[in-house]
Amino acid sequence: MKSAARTVDPGSDAAIAASITPQPIEAIGARLGIPSDELYRYGPHKAKIALDLARRAEASPKGKLILVTAINPTPAGEGKTTTTIGLADALARAGKKVAIALREPSLGPVFGAKGGATGGGRAQIVPMQEINLHFTGDFHAISAAHNLLAAAIDNHIYWGNALDIDVRRVNWRRVVDLNDRALRRVTVGLGGPGNGFPREDGFDITVASEVMAIFCLARSLADLEERLGRMVVAQTRARKPVTAADLQVTGAMTALLRDAFQPNLVQTLEGTPALVHGGPFANIAHGCNSVFATRAALGLADYVVTEAGFGADLGAEKFLDIKCRQAGLKPSAIVIVATVRALKMHGGVAYKDVGIENVTAVNGGAANLVRHIDNMKSFGVPVVVAINRFTADTPAEVAAVEAACRAVGADVHLCTHWANGSAGAEGLAADVIRLADLPSAYRPLYADELPLVQKIETIARRIYRAGTVSFEPSALTKLAEFEAQGFGALPICMAKTQYSFTADPTQRGAPEGFVLPIREVRLSAGAGFVVALCGDVLTMPGLPSKPAAEHIFVDETGFIGGIS
């Protein structure tokens, strides 16, 4: 097979990042008032913030929190991270003390279909190759902690099974931070008595681990260990829950996670500080960076720009109903990223044809954007729309998006931060500053005391606009069990496709009155939410026919190319 070309496109993200000389990480820390002796360097351009300083900062989150979310995306994404970075750079350009709070990239997408997650063009965080690959080793620590617990379960069963674990009801799978469909279902314990008891098992991708979700919701190391202990990993033969605390390894798991729990500090191409920490799956979990890093950033900066995974119906709803609820956060403004190409697809255009002008399709697809605007306003937070400009967008198409926003009273800004950096998002930044000074009447979508079934129905009807919710009988049984076990006050984490308000990824636009199927529910007792699975959601993705890994290379200088 012919190997991929090992040349660097001068217009690629990697080449643009390489053309900038980053500042020493101590200079970036100084922008937030972090002394150099409270930064633990991982080379010249990335560091961990000392735990004591991060703890002091997170205890007093005085800054204003700005959430960046998006419409239902195309497979390539709509530039939510790029907009987050461009907006933060523009706020810094306006003289504001600002920090970014982002998730860490997973190796699954980096080597799979979507690629890296460090922004693009002139709106990137660096060092982009290192952040997209091993970074500071946080995900490896999370994988190790997760798999230590998996080993402890099988070891406990091997040495007599004092907890009377039913080997048919072990729900704690292994993890690896790669896309590998062959590992979705495996059999372990083969090869004779010395290897344990044979049973069915499987692998999820690391970002789908409950350990990752806990890592990103914990407020302290003590909170982290307590949450780890609450995780339900199996059932006994009498159908009683078995927790991680029962296996007595949560102390060791926390030890593996201690250093990882310190937030990571990097920078944008323009030198804006960025705390990049944690990265739970945006489908099966809440899809936000760590609470600890977000609150620390709010204690260090006057404005903190963060994002939530996928579209506003998934990521933003979970941010507002799970992360903010648990972390005591109150966002000051919400930015909804829209693109002409995505609106054309929601207006009926095939993805391969979104580069062709079609104002009619934009007008039709604008219903998707309007739905998201209405949904975000329902949380009581000021909303503004950012049109992430692509070169194929025509003036008439952009005008159609602007008209749709004005028709529902939403401010809108055409942004060119990908090409122009902070200068391309100055208008958006000025509006965000204005909106953040307005009173935020943030409120969650539902009350804690609402029954679990009604919480699911509330999200389905008010955010997705479903007509009815169809529950599998087994899902209803489990929800009743969760409430009987004392978990009825937990929020809901919906797991569905990111491409549609429905559970069907082919249903574009803004459908109404459909049936939302709930096929399964899962308890994430440590993370503190109940997962409701709509349709088919994979916790171990597979690689595409032409994975991004085929284009990644290292030259003789050590430069890593092919990551985008």
Strand-helix topology:
Elements: H1 13-18, H2 25-31, E1 39-41, E2 47-49, H3 51-58, E3 64-70, H4 80-93, E4 98-102, H5 107-111, E5 119-120, E6 123-126, H6 128-132, H7 138-158, E7 165-170, E8 174-176, E9 186-188, E10 199-201, E11 203-205, H8 210-215, H9 221-230, E12 232-236, E13 241-243, H10 244-247, H11 250-257, E14 264-268, E15 273-276, H12 291-300, E16 303-307, H13 312-327, E17 333-338, H14 340-346, H15 359-377, E18 383-388, H16 395-407, E19 411-415, H17 417-420, H18 426-436, H19 452-464, E20 468-471, H20 473-484, E21 492-495, E22 515-524, E23 529-534, E24 553-554, E25 560-561
Parallel strand pairs: 3-16, 3-17, 4-15, 4-16, 8-11, 17-18, 18-19, 20-22, 21-23
Antiparallel strand pairs: 1-2, 2-14, 5-6, 6-14, 7-12, 9-10, 12-13, 14-15, 22-23, 24-25
Helix pairs in contact: 3-12, 4-18, 7-11, 9-11, 14-15, 15-16
Question: Quick gist of this model?
Answer:
This protein is of the alpha/beta class. The protein has 20 helices and 25 strands.
List keywords for this structure.
19% strand; globular; alpha/beta; 4-stranded mixed sheet; Formyltetrahydrofolate synthetase, domain 3; Rossmann fold; 564 residues; Domain 2, N(10)-formyltetrahydrofolate synthetase; single chain; 12-stranded mixed sheet
